[in-house]
């Protein structure tokens, strides 16, 4: 089974978040720092869910999200140690409190700087995929229209073409074209112009063939 990036990050995040929520209630010595971390994790939880969703769809590998995953796992180790430090050990408490504060700041910084870059990259790749789909749909539509025209010419002669009105595309082509047309509303007009020109060419060729046979 492929370990997608979102799944790896989601697992690390879930383990950390559950531990923080538990220790906030049970470890008084670090409650202030743990509450801040809990708030930060609560704020980024929707982002983690989106990472899980989109990285599965885009089939991202685990390596590119490794920095975030590693940070969350380091944070879990820091938070887990809170339950092992004695309340009266003031020096260790102070040092560990600072580490927790630094970790919280690192999480905020990572998601403020790193995630927008990943999102921008993903959006560009999605646009490329949409453009490729549009091209494939256009090729299918052109092939279907050509097949219909040539079938009419060979089976019924030039008269079968009538006024060369463009036949309606099958439902699945229409649905696909509508889904792919969100980035440009002008493509249909260009396609219709190309179809009209191609139709005129077919009509002229068919007429010439009929005249030669007479």
Structure notes:
It is rod-shaped, with a radius of gyration of 31 Å. Helix content is 79%, strand content 0%. The protein has six helices and no strands. The protein is mostly helical and 214 residues long. The chain has helices spanning 5-26, 31-58, 66-81, 90-156, 171-180, 187-213.
In short:
This protein has 214 residues and is mainly alpha-helical.
Key structural traits:
single chain; 214 residues; 2 domains; rod-shaped; disordered N terminus; disordered C terminus
Give the overall shape: rod-shaped
Number of domains: 2
Our Rg estimate from Cα atoms comes to: 31 Å
Q: Number of helical runs?
A: 6
Low-confidence stretches: 1-5, 182-188, 190-199, 201-214
- Give helix and strand order, one letter per element, not per position: HHHHHH
The oligomerization state is single chain
């Amino acid at each position: 089974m492929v370990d997608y990036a979102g799944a790896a990050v989601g697992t690390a995040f879930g383990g950390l978040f559950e531990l923080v929520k538990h220790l906030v209630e049970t470890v008084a010595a670090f409650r202030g720092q743990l509450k801040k971390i809990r708030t930060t994790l609560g704020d980024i939880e929707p982002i983690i869910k989106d990472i899980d969703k989109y990285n599965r769809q885009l089939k991202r590998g685990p390596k590119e999200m490794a920095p975030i995953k590693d940070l969350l796992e380091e944070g879990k180790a820091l938070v887990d140690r809170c339950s092992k430090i004695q309340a009266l050990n003031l020096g260790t408490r102070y040092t560990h409190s600072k580490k927790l504060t630094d970790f919280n700041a690192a999480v905020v910084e990572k998601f403020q700087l790193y995630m927008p870059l990943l999102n921008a990259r993903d959006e560009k790749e999605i646009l490329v995929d949409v453009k490729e789909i549009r091209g494939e749909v256009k090729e299918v539509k052109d092939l279907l229209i050509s097949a219909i025209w040539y079938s009419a010419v060979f089976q019924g002669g030039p008269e079968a073409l009538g006024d060369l009105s463009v036949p309606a595309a099958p439902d699945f082509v229409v649905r696909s074209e509508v889904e792919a047309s969100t980035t440009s509303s002008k493509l249909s007009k260009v396609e219709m112009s190309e179809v009209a020109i191609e139709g005129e060419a077919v009509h002229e060729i068919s007429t010439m063939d009929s005249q030669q046979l007479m």
